[in-house]
Amino acid sequence: MTESLHEKIYNELLHKIKTHFYEEGAQLPTEAELALQYNSSKAPVRQALDYLQQEGFILRRPGKGTFIAGRREWPHLNLGGFEQDFEENNQYLYCKTLSVQDLPLPKDIAKAVGIPAGTPAVSVQRIRYFKDKPLYYLHHFIFGMESALIKKEGNFSSLLAIYDQYHIPIVRTEDELQAVPAPQKIAELLRVPPHTAVMLINRKTYREKGRLLEFVRFYVLTEEWKYRVQYQEK
Question: Where are the beta strands (DSSP E) in 46-106?
């Protein structure tokens, strides 16, 4: 069956989004520019963009344009209460990777996740910035993945995109939240005084059959960046 023009435009744009031709936060060409590119009227372009918006891959901002949404490969997966801020401020966010290394799992992390200390893991340390200010520090421990696959991504925005790239399924996450004073090292990285109040989030991410894929501990400055929980009647 031959695909329609709007399906062709949709599929090609989606492919460019998933292969990072268009990075998170990037602005798409205008409807007129896309119509010219695909030798079509604006109607099929608009229909393709409607589908991408409904599925969570793009954000339309009146008077500003159309932008690539964050965590676009998993529009059905809610991974925390910062989603609204991500969507509203995506163009101001970026990440810096501090280190990627293989190491045996430390005792404190092993206790937190319930697996033996010394288990091989990939340690990834990152800082996410908002308008050039440190927003939060993340320390990931990843299981069953080669560190080289992560190193080559450089200052990547989302580990979820890397998991998707290598067809690693995510089926469940668990978050534990706690208000804590920032330790000295964390305070220095976040550029705040020691013992500044921060939100500590411990997150476990599982793949199929209950296998632990990742444990991440992150310290968040919540003065401007709020953690929201929404309940919706089914």
Answer: 58-61, 65-68, 93-104
